[in-house]
Amino acid sequence: MKQKFFRFWPSLIWMGVIFYFSSKSTAAVPLTGGWRFLFFKSLHLIEYAILAICLGWALIKRKNIIIIGYLYALSDEIHQFFVPGRESRFQDTLIDLIGLFLGIFLFKFLNQFWIARK
Description:
By secondary structure, the chain is mainly α. The chain is built from four helices and no strands. It has a domain at 1-7 and 48-118. The chain is globular.
């Protein structure tokens, strides 16, 4: 039981990291146009892929990774609605969802690689 609890800490810490960066204004980022769009949407993919990997390490089933991760993405966009200098967009939650699927795929690949090495 204690080991299962320990396995959730990376997920909780990573959720805190996402929350922290969502609390910051993006106005100071010097990118414009398409580069700005690409940069921030890539961050969404990466953030949520890492979250899926952390949730996978916590021994959560794939379906639950999607549910927990997507609910967190929705709450993150609601949070951003109240942050000055940030925008809240439903489309960003769909990018987060793609990141979750990417993370599940990477976790499965890394897990199989790890098992094969043992």
